[in-house]
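Q: Please design a sequence for this.
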């Protein structure tokens, strides 16, 4: 048993920063983690999603921007919450043009990211089964630059 400890240590160091959430069973755990990351963000929050309809996450995003973080919200559809977020300081709402996207990407301060295979919608996350992968590894922003280039500011 003791001989396996170094192998277990190597495995946990290599894969210990990835989290898998199975929705809807772990919905509250995921939402709590995201709210905490948004509230404690100090620099930059980037969300790329087809649509955004989640009141609890919206409140924590506003709280995070009040503490100094900048939010860039890139959406395909402006219905609902994105329009209400456009009025706040340090929140940049952008509209995505070009090809349609199906899933969502969340990046917080370059050291936390989540890949969600659906739009960020409270009802969808509660009712439909999906697998969400989050990581605390550094995210290369060059991977997300094509989305930023294909988007236009909502208020221009």
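A: Design:
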């Amino acid at each position: 048993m003791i001989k396996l400890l170094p192998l277990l240590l190597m495995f946990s160091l290599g894969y210990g920063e990835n989290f898998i959430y199975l929705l809807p069973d772990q919905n509250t755990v995921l939402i709590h983690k995201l709210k905490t990351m948004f509230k404690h963000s100090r620099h930059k929050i980037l969300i790329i999603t087809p649509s955004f309809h989640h009141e609890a996450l919206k409140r924590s995003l506003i709280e995070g921007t009040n503490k100094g973080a900048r939010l860039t919200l890139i959406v395909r559809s402006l219905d609902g919450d994105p329009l209400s977020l456009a009025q706040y300081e340090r929140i940049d709402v952008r509209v995505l043009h070009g090809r349609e996207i199906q899933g969502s990407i969340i990046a917080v301060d370059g050291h936390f990211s989540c890949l969600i295979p659906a739009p960020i919608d409270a009802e969808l996350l509660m009712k439909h089964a999906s697998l969400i992968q989050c990581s605390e590894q550094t995210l290369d922003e060059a991977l997300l630059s094509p989305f930023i280039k294909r988007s236009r500011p909502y208020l221009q």
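Q: Thanks. Anything notable?
A: Strands lie at 18-23, 44-49, 52-53, 70-75, 91-96, 104-108, 112-116, 120-121, 130-135, 151-153. The domain at 27-153 is CATH 3.30.870.10 (Endonuclease; Chain A).
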